[in-house]
TrEMBL record:
Lineage start: Eukaryota, Metazoa, Chordata, Craniata, Vertebrata
Organism: Chrysolophus pictus (Golden pheasant)
Cellular compartments per GO CC: cytosol; early endosome membrane; endoplasmic reticulum membrane; Golgi membrane; lysosomal membrane; plasma membrane; trans-Golgi network
PROSITE patterns named among the record's database cross-references: PI3_4_KINASE_3 (PS50290)
Protein name per the record: Phosphatidylinositol 4-kinase type 2
Annotated InterPro entries: Lsb6/PI4K2, PI3/4_kinase_cat_dom
Membrane topology: Peripheral membrane protein
Length: 455
């Protein structure tokens, strides 16, 4: 193989360098100090070039790929795979993702080749506390207020899995409020890369020009792909705050109000099950439109109108700060801000109870959900099984409370006031596929409350 000669050359250079430094051990090397300095300088330059070749060869054998399509395989979802392929083709054609100005992390609008926004990509390395976060808010937070830095109940830099996990829970429960979200790999010049990554990319491109015999064997010449969550973009939606203020002055017709209440209850169930620690009224969306002519009433310049034929839909976005490994018990409680809305005072409808209760009442369904989340979360390099089990203990406790609240006909506000429960796997419990709460899990109450508690 061609690369063996570079390895042998490197060994020879290293031996010569050692010989020059330790000349007393090699009396046969009788050269003047001037010649020795010249030779040493030459060897150092050559050694640097050889080191560059080794870095390139290491990149070749390290298993990285230059085609993110190999990493983005969705055999069970060809529609989603086609969307990701469109995004990759657009990037290759120069239609690059655009960084979103809002928020405290690096997130990007991804477009197709026609410039239409098709998704939102949130790289793992650019999360609020990621080492490549392009926004300085969290950096100053860490420096100026380290005691309140981060959320002590969450696994750091796992937001992209939380986004994908929220969609998984939404899909399993049949809620339909989370836009499709999956873990993907993408690469773009507009992403935030370290100076080293950009220098390596430039070096490989230079090697391709100067040493094509070596560089043409590289699997990847450009920047390394980034892993993150990709959520399909939803059109025609506005922040819930806008519509909630609208509904106060111009109430919805009865049929639409009931539909909105049903959608709201699904949002509540999702947030409660995954224990979302970052749900305000500015990060869930509402779309209100008329069915008869498709007129979008969210535009400010269109006169407000209501119709019995109007439809309403909720989209639960920004689910990256969920799945805690313990209940919040330090400084902040991270409450659900929807709990103070008038819709939260209404007991769960029979429709919602019929949809969710049969599923979450079955511990085997809950166990299957945990196993699906395990398959998702274990793909992270920093995955820790014990921490994941703690996350599932919190989620099982939330599901247990939700089950009881639905059976008792409680409201969302009453649900969030229930005692916090942890359901841990019993070490002596059943290990089979048929799971029973009494012998497979143990239930404990989490009594410690945060310093600033809302309930």
């Amino acid at each position: 193989m061609f690369y063996f000669k570079y390895i042998l050359l490197g060994v020879g250079i290293s031996v010569c360098k050692v010989a020059l430094i330790q000349q007393s051990r090699f009396p046969c090397l009788l050269v003047s100090r001037y010649c020795q300095a010249e030779l040493f300088t030459f060897l150092c330059i050559y050694l640097c070039f050889y080191s560059f070749l080794l870095v390139c060869l290491f990149s070749y054998f390290s298993g990285h790929t230059g085609h993110t399509i190999d990493m983005n395989t969705f055999l069970d979802d060809p529609e989603f795979a086609e969307i990701i392929m469109r995004a990759e083709q657009a990037i290759e054609c120069g239609v690059l993702p655009e960084r979103i100005s809002q928020g405290s992390s690096g997130s990007y609008f991804v477009k197709d080749s026609k410039g239409k926004t098709i998704g939102v990509f949130k790289p793992k390395s650019e999360e609020p506390y990621g080492h490549l976060n392009p926004k300085w808010t969290k950096y100053f937070h860490k420096i100026c207020c380290p005691c309140c830095f981060g959320r002590g109940c969450l696994v750091p830099n796992q937001g992209y899995l939380s986004e994908a996990g929220a969609y998984l829970v939404d899909d399993k429960l049949g809620l339909g409020v989370v836009p499709k979200t999956k873990v993907v790999w993408l690469v773009s010049e507009t992403f935030n890369y370290s100076a080293i990554d950009r220098a390596k990319s430039r070096g490989k491109k230079y090697a391709l020009e100067k040493v094509p015999k070596v560089a043409k064997k590289f699997n990847r010449i450009g920047l390394p792909p980034k892993v993150g969550s990709f959520q399909l973009f939803v059109e025609g939606y506005k922040e819930a705050d806008y519509w909630l203020r609208k509904f106060e002055t111009d109430p919805l017709p009865e049929n639409t109000r009931k539909e909105f209440q049903s959608q709201f209850e699904r949002l509540v169930i999702l947030d409660y099950v995954i224990r979302n620690t970052d749900r305000g009224n500015d990060n869930w969306l509402v779309r209100y439109e008329k069915q008869d002519d498709g007129l979008n009433l969210s535009d400010k310049d269109i006169q407000w109108a209501v119709s019995e034929e109007s439809t309403i839909k909720i989209a639960a976005i920004d689910n990256g700060l969920a799945f805690p490994f313990k209940h919040p018990d330090e400084w902040r409680a991270y409450p659900f801000h929807w709990a103070w809305l008038s819709q939260a005072q209404v007991p769960f409808s029979q429709e919602t109870r019929d949809l969710v209760l049969p599923r979450i009442s079955d511990m085997n369904f809950v166990q299957d959900l945990c196993e699906d989340l395990y398959e998702l979360f274990k793909t992270d390099k920093g995955f820790d099984k014990a921490t994941f089990e703690n996350q599932m203990s919190v989620m099982r406790g939330q599901i247990l409370n939700l089950t009881q609240a639905l059976k008792d006909g409680k409201s969302p506000m009453q649900l969030v006031q229930m005692p916090r429960v942890i359901v841990e796997r019993s070490s002596t419990g059943s290990q089979g596929r048929i799971v029973h709460l009494s012998n497979a899990f143990t239930q404990t109450f989490h009594s410690r409350k945060p310093f600033f508690s809302s309930w």
